[in-house]
Amino acid sequence: MRILIVEDELDLQEAMADGLRIDGYAVDTCDNGETAYELLYEINYDLVVLDLNLPKMDGLEVLEKIRDEKSELKVLILSARSSVHDKVKGLDIGANDYLAKPFDFAELEARIRNLLRRKFVQERTTLFCGAITVDLSKRIVIVNENELALTKKEFALLEYLLLNKERVVSQEELIEHVWDQHADSFSGAIRVHIATLRKKLKAVLNYDPIGTKIGEGYFLLEKGGDVHA
């Protein structure tokens, strides 16, 4: 999942970004409203953490523009404005959640997990595909009742494929949602990580659960079948 953090307190911005990257998210950052709007116009983020007190363009103005153009984007307002009026205004404009500063990072993590899973699996914290189970809250993968060790990027790829298991996911979409703004779309990184993820899953499932549709992308198989279509 790809997240944009819009926060002009650079120490806080860096701390949030580092923590969320440790959790396995792809994270981009910026420190003003104008740049945030440009990034949100160009890139399909899964969630934005949006401060209200921003230079160049206020956070509420950014939120209004987001809602005019991207009604499905999850928005978590993060602000020192703790008055009821500011919370109500932000939620009325279209924020999905509101977290007042100062806050505990564990609460930020929990709120982000909750927002990201709402669209796809409503209130469940687990994803399934055949013998594969992904626990989103614990960030673990269980295959045939045994925990499978994955890297953060492998976990993120599997999570995204599971969230979209009813369709083929292109390499371009994976770049948009699993990598950050520093990713090189021509580096072959997706193929490398898909290959290592396949190898680990195949070793415990005895079949390859990741199918490839030539020229289109990847999809998941619940049991052994033709991985090329």
Can you give a write-up of this model?
The protein has about 230 residues and is an alpha/beta fold. It is elongated, with a radius of gyration of 18 Å. The protein folds into 2 domains: about 1-120, Response regulator (Rossmann fold, 3-Layer(aba) Sandwich), CATH 3.40.50; about 125-220, Arc Repressor Mutant, subunit A (Orthogonal Bundle). The protein is built from 8 helices and 11 strands. α4 (about 85-95) links the parallel β4 and β5 (about 95-100). A 5-stranded parallel sheet has the order 2-1-3-4-5, with helices on both faces. A 4-stranded antiparallel sheet has the order 6-7-8-9, with helices on one face. Strands 10-11 form a two-stranded antiparallel sheet.
Give the ordered list of helices and strands: EHEHEHEHEHEEEEHHHEE
Global shape: elongated
Helix content: 40-55%
Count helical runs: 8
The pLDDT mean sits at: 87
Query: How many domains in all?
Result: 2
